[in-house]
## 1
Amino acid sequence: MVTNGSAGRTGGAGKLDITAFAFVAGYTDVIGFIALAGLFTAHVTGNLIMIGVESVGSTEGLFLKVLALPVFVGVVALVRLTEKRLIQRDRDAAVPLVAVESLLLAAFASVGLRMQALGAGTDSHLAMLAGLLAVAAMAIQNALSRTSLADLGPTTIMTGNSTQVVIDLVDLFSAPPESRGAIRARLGKMVPSVLSFAVGAILGALAYTRVGYAAVALPIVVLVVICVRRARSRTAVPAR
């Protein structure tokens, strides 16, 4: 029985997945923030801060940020229930769930483009639908980073990763030789994740300011490529 869909994927393919998922999260998070009045889609608890800010100032997008929290919780719970069933059937749970993530991002882009065409504001029903679709997509990635993709480490929130990188860099020079391998392994996951998230955020901001919601096509393509590659590696028969 498969207990973890990421088992054995911490080599080259695993590092590529780390970079790709972190890029998607940074890219999507910044688009939500710019387009939807400061909505965090990947770092969803950041909306608690925005709710506090908007409770004493502008209330633009406030209801959306409040709704984002229960939607996030509900999707994470649903992902976990679905994941358990897939694992019981000896399937890589990450493939179908990441496919759903890509579909939710496609729906996010579609609704966003409709918003642009109609000139709808950030408090419109379309804006709320778009934002919650993006939150749901990132909730899937958040959940998987704790379960089937746990070997990759966190790919949606970089505060913990950045903290661990600094701690490991400090410890690396004073650690005994037998501990340095584990430290280097963590750095090998955390550093690419942080850098890729930052690159995704920068490129996402640039792309959105130029083409609007059409910019969401890039993370969708990245997720589809991940799904196809993982599915092929899962079904590949080792040469004898």
Note: The chain has one domain: 14-234.
## 2
Amino acid sequence: MILVTGASGNVGSEAARLLGAQHQPTRALVRDAARAPRADVEIITGDFERPDTLDAAMRGIETVILVSPAIPAQEIAVIASAVREGVRHIIKITSKASDDSPVERRRGQARIEAYLETSGLSYTLLRANAYMQNLLALAPVIKQSGRFVMSAGDGQVGMIDTRDVAATAATVAAEATVHAGRTYWLTGPDLITYNDVAKELSDALGYEIEYRRTTPAEHRAAMVQAGLPETVATSNAQAFGLIAEGDAAWLSDEVAAITGAAPRSLRTFIADHIAAFT
């Protein structure tokens, strides 16, 4: 049986849906049953900060698709529970990770991965580039003003749709032993700038959307003013600053190699989510 954590989020819910559609025995872990995915799977409620609920979710599980906000204490608790309950394999959804990164999330990912590597469990890492779904956070300001402000400069991003991350995870979970010990780098089909995002939105909406470049400091201040916690705003501004420097300008063909289907383009993503911007 396969357990999907974080099953109310973009990646987890889609992975659970796909596994259910494939008639793979699957359990979906959510904090709130009301937010459980619409999928032909078993639903169980639990909390990353309550080991007893994690252990209950892990019983009878062979493979875990680990999706979470990359908070080290929480993901380490999931891995520890998997060890206690005899899980064989973990598929971790991750991103770039480095102990000395200026971005807190990347340092956190490095801690989690180090723990996983020494846990004794078999594992696969799915290291994804930036998610297209993050663009949906810009929808309110785009609808209101016809523009958005970022500190990514003209940096290119191998942006990926979370549905393709989920499809890759579901495929790997169905044949985990084949992918044991592997790290896959997941991207969409194209290198995209935020100016490209503005152009694609303009074409889809029928009026001009403007991308305004700003500095990381100004971007951070704007995010704090919009209500983001200072630590989150700082981490986001650092990440966008790295994008401006070319840190996310990488592509791979591993989604297609694993799933047999080409990853979705930015144009397809926008067409599928156009209602959010109108």
Note: The chain has a mean pLDDT of 95.
## 3
Amino acid sequence: MELRGIRHKTLLHADGVSQHAVRRWLANGTMRSVQPWYVTAEAPLGLVRILHFGVRPTCLDAASLHGLWTPPHTGFHVFRPRLLRVGEELRNARAHPVRRMAGKIITLAEEQEIILHGPALRSWPGFDPVPALDLVLTHAAHCLPVEKTAVLFESGLHRRLLSRREADRILASLPQRIRRPLTRVRADAESGTETTVRWWMESRHFPVRPQVLFPDGRRRMDLLVGRSWVIECDGREFHDDPLSYDADRARDLYLTSRGYRVTRLSWEQVFLRWEETQAMLLAILRRGEHLDPPRR
């Protein structure tokens, strides 16, 4: 994945840029060298620092740059060929994480520790500062709990950044213990919160179906648990959208009028207070009311 303001020296030469032009741009400050890269003022500062350490982003951090939903996390996930343990040059190293938010790449204010990733590679996979999505997801599958890995896969599928065939190929390359639970990833989840809640329900064998049609046949529920409990999962990006807020309340009122019980879960409930939220969901499930048909 290419990023504005960062170009590998090999690609710059392949672009037909002469050494004379490179020396001129370096001399006048148009760009600077962070070997083996040339960077300009457009380059995200957090990413430039990571490249300076001789590593590249992967896992959750690279997934965010690719435009996937990412659960909240700490640390800056990176990799380097033939390196699985942090050496002296990376010991205690910290950097400002870089994220894609609302279509823009930003550098976060708080520095994070560097987290080095495997599996080991013999050489760099290419000349881009951010590796291709298949390697990013492979690293994520080896690093993260299965439900967080599922969020990344389902995000890629839903946003059509990843085809089903590509997802299956990545999964086939993983060890069986990692691959087996991930075979149920889907393309119709509309948020990371939805994936997380559905995955939790499925893992505990509760009856849950995603994206079920409303009785009017025109809209879809996020999750239908049993026969009558609808769980709507709010994504973080819709927090401050008044139109989405109004549409969500209209959905809830319609479903309630048709006899469904509706619970709306916020991004914070799922990702920041998940343990507490799980306990309350279990208390509701144990009553068994979700198995009853909608009350009309």
Note: The mean pLDDT is 91.
## 4
Amino acid sequence: MAKCPNCKAESPNPAKTWKYGIFTVKAYICKNADTVQRILDRKGKHSFTLKLMKVKGYIKA
């Protein structure tokens, strides 16, 4: 489960999950704020969150 960095709403299930090197990436879509965020986990622990900005691409949240 992930919280949206903009509106703090919770998304129960990721839209997509994949491996990227040593990380497991989970992509969540927030319907309230109309944003996309990616959460990167390493060995089951949260490493960092990236959110999609319309002009800049993905930035660290």
Note: Residues 2-60 form one domain.
